[in-house]
Amino acid sequence: MSEYTHHPANSTASAPSGTNAKSNSWFKGRPKSVGPILSNSKRHLSDSSLADLKNSSLGFEKVFVLNMPSRTDKLDAMTLAASVTGFDFDVLEGVQGESISKKALSGKWENRPGIDGVVGCWRGHMNFAKECSYLSPIFGPRAKCLPRLRIVRRRLSSALVIEDDADWDLNLRSIMEYIALGSQTLLSTPQHEAPRSPYGDGWDLMWFGHCASSTIKGDDRRFIIKNDPNVPPPQHRANYGDIPDMSPYDDNTRIIFFTAGNTCTYSYALSYHGAAKILKYLSLDIFNEPIDYGLREMCEKKDRGFLCISVFPQIFGEHKPAGANTRDSDIDPQNRSSVRIKGYSHNTVHSTRLNVEHLIDGRTDLLENQYGEDPQLEGPITAEYRTSVEG
Prior knowledge:
The chain is an alpha+beta fold and about 400 residues long. Helix 3 packs antiparallel against helix 6 (about 270-285). The chain starts with about 45 loop residues before the first helix and ends in a 5-residue tail after the last strand. The strands form three sheets. Strands 1, 2, 3, 5, 6, 7, 8, 9, 10 and 15 form a ten-stranded mixed beta sheet that branches. It has a three-stranded antiparallel beta sheet with strand order 4-11-14, with no helix packed on it. A two-stranded antiparallel ribbon has the order 12-13. The chain has helices spanning about 45-55, 70-85, 115-130, 150-155, 170-185, 270-285, 290-300, 355-360, and strands at about 60-65, 90-95, 160-165, 165-170, 205-210, 210-215, 220-225, 255-265, 265-270, 310, 315-320, 325, 340, 345, 380-385.
């Protein structure tokens, strides 16, 4: 994974130039049979955490994909990508904003172009939280996040939600092991005790796919993953707001940290406690902003007791498929008339979607890095924990 150099608020990242060099090192790193180890403390994941991370829901209780019923094309693509990666998901149907009664809205939403899409997106994510609240909050480590309402209604211990246009690296499962070790380390999980969740206990939201991520002023705790071939080069990182200062690290570093809030919701996970709080503050209380603004506010306001963890560079990005650009968004009302000859994905080195044909055929020799050749690394992937920038 690579560290970040600070980018300006407006992204300068460009789409891949069309270089599709074969990736000969996408699988390099530690042996798959061994869990990651924190180099400066020898902390490692327990056998139970490793086992839970290998379940069909990436270590969560449930995985949900948010999809508009009319977008069967997006659901087909997501089904194929999840299948070759080896995880299952439930479909959470998206909501048409115009179908929501004005009486069901807790705030006054201005009447402007595209507002129905914003309202529908908000409602879909509220439904996710509701489901997670339906299952036992002490179920254990096997949880995935659905749109918020689902977490609460089902009382899920945790759940992961993925938007239907998201993409991820071929090495997602190995990456998630490092994320789990990082979150357990940040949460001060005792080494001799197996947490209920492989990601540790006590978090409310884990933000995996975003387009901006803010650190907490004065909090320099960082879980640092070095020599990671799955980190996108700085020139290909697409972000549209604040990002962490990555100047202390090299370009193949990824960090995990407590965040003051992110932007965009390509993928994130909620715990039961987090989902219940989101329902309270973003549905029952007065709220009339895009959903990612609301989530950011939950992370930012200390009085809400809402603990958020982020990863940068992000591990889920937006996919832009080949074909008419009008197919890209179900929210943005802009009229696009151009045609994309080749698809690409933001912030994803070894794209699952772009390599799906090779994955179906089992041709690992043909797997591609969409940005060109993999970097020459100094050694295998390593991880360390620092409580200050100086280490």
